[in-house]
Amino acid sequence: MSLAYAICSVYNTNMIYLDYAATTPMELEVLDAMHEAELRFFANASALHTPGHLALNQIEETRETLARMIGAKPAEIIFTSGSSESNNTVIRTFAGHEIEVSPLEHHSIFEVAEKVAGDKRPKLFSYMLANNETGDILDLAEIAEMARQVSVPERSELFEGKTDFGKELVTDKRGAYVHSDLTQALGKIPIDVNRLGLDYATFSAHKIGGPVGVGALYVREGVPFLPLIIGGNQENKRRGGTYNTIGIVGFGAALKKIEKIKSIEKYDTKVRRLRDLLGERILKEIPGSSLNSSLVRGESLPNILNASFQAAEGESIQLYLDAEGVIVSTGSACASGDIKPSHVLMAKTGDAEVAHSSIRFSFGLNNDERDVEGVMKVLPGIIDRLQKISTIEMEKK
Amino acid sequence: MNEGQDWVYSEIVKEHFMNPRNYLKGSESQFDYDAAGIVGNPICGDQMKMYIKVVDGKIFDIRWKTYGCASAIASTSALSELAKGKTLDEALKISAKDIDNYLGTLPKHKFHCSVLGHEALADAIKKYQEKQA
């Protein structure tokens, strides 16, 4: 019943869905795997009985899959409820310590960092590899190098924990550690935590065709770590709470799917072409438009196009597009219930009007050229209409 | 499964957003107005300008321009309907609450930033009265 519903609702409508960076519809393989898990692997995965152990096997399979895909060891992966929890866990581990974050970070990083940062060493750097609003790719090698320059403190309470067997928990004592939020990058560009020089990394299932409510945190062996949720032996005492077996199975199915279909190659070719085509057509066909995403390969994710439209406000553009069946998001304050526009676009452009007038188109593997055509059929008219009723006069070219 | 309302605002807000009333499309010179007033700032995300044509102490005709969200467009459109035909004194009394009531209540976080048109209208009336004095 629900599979049939999914086929009817997600994959077979006239809707042009271009909000994949916000969330992706679940892949049919994921739904299948989760349905099977619900029936077969419902038991508590911490239990010693057979059904419990079978459920745990499923969890370990996802752990191994993710570890293999990012160049980590399975024991370095902790399952969480999603990216916000993963981010909170790392930042709060460094409460009272120096925390440096990029101006492009997600709220679940910078709001926590503002709250808990202090002046102690070791220090934490948190720089996302790829930004969720503009797709900007940051140079993490530079951050890893900066981290290496920070001197190691003689003593730190972060280094003092012991295992139940009296062994030191932190064996990799350094002056600074590096975390990166890889939520948007997973499945779109190659990830290797060693090559990127990361100590911590955040992942989420629902950006790659998996379910909402499950994510992961990579924690390099031997680095400082404090659990956010205490109470239970799950995840080697690093994250309390009954295992979300069904969600983790869904995450695993989504990971296997992106691996099987070689999603990185597809994003780099097919999706990049669509994104670039839309960007080029917007610039050419819509007066007063500008791009906040680079179309240069390597400078941004291949699936995100952020554009601004002079004299037209983002929420209005978004809702007029919605009425035409085109689903996008905006960095305008108005749409988010916030009073300030996107901090990312403000950091990038320094221009509130550009931020308020921005739209993010984010593509997935299900989009095709008809979708670009569909957007360009309605977008120029919507922008023209808003520009004509706007108090802002268009600059005459 | 009950899908609920598919639109973030009320039906009447949607109607005024999709089919705004009395807007001034394009150049200001296309409307023969006596005075205009402005409020807001594009930097804050919303700006409204109201243009009035006064005959015998009443708002005979009205136009507006808005840079802003759906709620800003709908509330300015609603205000233009409310103000049309009113005496200047009556029009000055139109409050944000009146606009909100007309639209069937806007989301709370929208109320303070997007229901500003009445201030632009008051500004226009003030400028008109100064011109007459």
Gist of the model:
The complex is a heterodimer of chains A (397) and B (133). By secondary structure, chain A is an alpha/beta fold. Chain A has two domains: 28-260, Type I PLP-dependent aspartate aminotransferase-like (Major domain) (Aspartate Aminotransferase, domain 2, 3-Layer(aba) Sandwich), CATH 3.40.640.10; 262-388, Aspartate Aminotransferase, domain 1, CATH 3.90.1150.10.
Q: How would you describe the overall organization of this protein?
A:
The complex is a heterodimer of chains A (397) and B (133). Chain A has 397 residues and is α/β, with parallel strands linked by helices. Chain A folds into two domains: 233 residues, 3-Layer(aba) Sandwich (Aspartate Aminotransferase, domain 2), CATH 3.40.640; 127 residues, Alpha-Beta Complex (Aspartate Aminotransferase, domain 1). Chain A has 14 helices and twelve strands. Chain B has one domain: Sufe protein. Chain: A (Alpha-Beta Complex), CATH 3.90.1010.10. A three-stranded antiparallel β-sheet of chain B has the order 1-2-3. In chain B, helix 1 packs across helix 2 and helix 2 crosses helix 5. Chain B has 133 residues and is α+β, with helices and mostly antiparallel strands. The radius of gyration of chain B is 15 Å and the shape is elongated. The model of chain B has no long low-confidence stretch (mean pLDDT 91). At the A-B interface, helix 10, helix 11 and helix 13 of A face strand 2, strand 3, helix 2 and helix 5 of B.
